[in-house]
């Protein structure tokens, strides 16, 4: 087997588009199931059939989230650049959930302090995650510059 | 370009760096697998590279890439050689006089041919130490045993190799 054949076989997991796709899938599933869950929780006196329908929708969203999470941890791991992309996608998902949660609350004419707390907590987690990813990438970039400088100096 | 720089570039997510890494290390991986298993095995080689790709983001010490790569390669080979590794290790035997002479007489290709007849543990340390030029501490790290055990395995391997070469008519 030649190195080119090895790389050709690794083409799928090496694809950045695929990794970002898995991330987008995971965040979409998570955000959608969270918003549907919120709608479900704030709707009083639903018939059994509607409850089942809501539960199925939430379960579908969670399944996609679990699949995306599994894929980026087991199938196509995230490198430093991908982690930064994941951090921004996390922020986007948080914004979507925050706006959605706010809209649902305003439609119900009541702003739950607990919900606000959850939104703020998720925002803090998303921001910390992005910060950690950016710091890791910056450290690797510094190390790359040092090593490249040493390599040039040795020539 | 140093391996550490290549690994750091891979960890950043540079796809071309991964291609360079594969091109640079593929011959060593293929050689190790081929000699440990007594023939090339594309599935094991691919399994190794896939595990390298998946493990690279978590590699804390990029400067220790080589032993890490061989640990992964060894694990994949061990899965194939599970029966050979499952047998109890024989008691260490003292070196026979002149055991090292074989090492000086045979060239690398002859050595590689005779290696196939050696037990897996002994074949592995000879491969890593003599053919892949890994230092003793790296061999110990790769095999997951103390340096002393690597030395005793090397001694036993040389003795067995000598017997094998003598059997094949290389005594002169």
TrEMBL record, chain A:
Superkingdom, natural source: Bacteria
Keywords attached to this Swiss-Prot or TrEMBL record, sorted alphabetically, are: Membrane, Transmembrane, Transmembrane helix
Kindly list the residue ranges recorded as spanning the membrane: 20-40, 52-72, 84-107, 113-133
Q: What is this protein called?
A: Transmembrane transport protein
Give the source species: Micromonospora trifolii
Which taxonomic lineage is given here? Bacteria, Bacillati, Actinomycetota, Actinomycetes, Micromonosporales
TrEMBL record, chain B:
The UniProt keywords, alphabetically, are: DNA-binding, Sigma factor, Transcription, Transcription regulation
Domain (RNA polymerase sigma factor 70 region 4 type) ranges: 110-161
Which top-rank group of organisms is this from? Bacteria
State if DNA-binding is listed as a keyword.
Answer: yes
SUPFAM superfamilies documented for this protein: Sigma2 domain of RNA polymerase sigma factors, Sigma3 and sigma4 domains of RNA polymerase sigma factors
Record-linked InterPro entries: RNA_pol_sigma-70-like (IPR039425), RNA_pol_sigma-70_dom (IPR014284), RNA_pol_sigma70_r2 (IPR007627), RNA_pol_sigma70_r4_t2 (IPR013249), RNA_pol_sigma_r2 (IPR013325), RNA_pol_sigma_r3/r4-like (IPR013324), WH-like_DNA-bd_sf (IPR036388)
Q: What Pfam families would the database entry show?
A: Sigma70_r2 (PF04542), Sigma70_r4_2 (PF08281)
- Domain RNA polymerase sigma-70 region: from-to ranges: 21-84
For this chain, the family text in UniProt reads: Belongs to the sigma-70 factor family. ECF subfamily.
Q: Mind telling me what this protein is named?
A: Sigma-70 family RNA polymerase sigma factor
The species this protein belongs to is: Micromonospora trifolii
